[in-house]
Task: structure prediction
Amino acid sequence: MADQVARIAVVQGAPSADVQTLFWSLAERWRPTVRLAGVLAEDHGLPGRACSAGYLCSLSDGARYPIFQDLGRDSQTCHLAGDGASLAAAAVRRDVDAGCDLVMLSKFGKLEAEGGGLRDAFAAAIERGVPILTSVSKVFLPKWESFAAPLFKPVALDVGEIEAWRQTVRPRAGLLRPASAARPANIP
Result:
């Protein structure tokens, strides 16, 4: 892959909260000139919970998809729930099919490693050749590598490094089209 550009940039090993803060900042920076699709994480904001999984927020329309069950104050159990992530993945797939320049997905985590969550959103972007910016924690690296190797490039949690990667995957005028325009009408 030395002569090819990695279409996926993945932040590895950084704290999730730091990654999401940077991703939100980049989304705001890019929004005026980049057609973004994807979802980023937002904390649930509930006090006294052991797990911070909250919402996945759509970059295209602001929809919020809950990915938690409220198990009550002082619960020591992770409350991650996959139904909202599956709905978010379906929405991202529709956005990718409609046409976009870049997909930002909060992370490849537990749900995706088990075959659910945002996995279909990742697959949609990969199938269409749309660049992806995401993150993966060390614990899920083997599953990530099995899923996405050799299509990705590790990047630091660094604006300059991520911007440099984005410049290598920027679309040239007229290259990306919506899925409906991707094939002649006579081919199903």
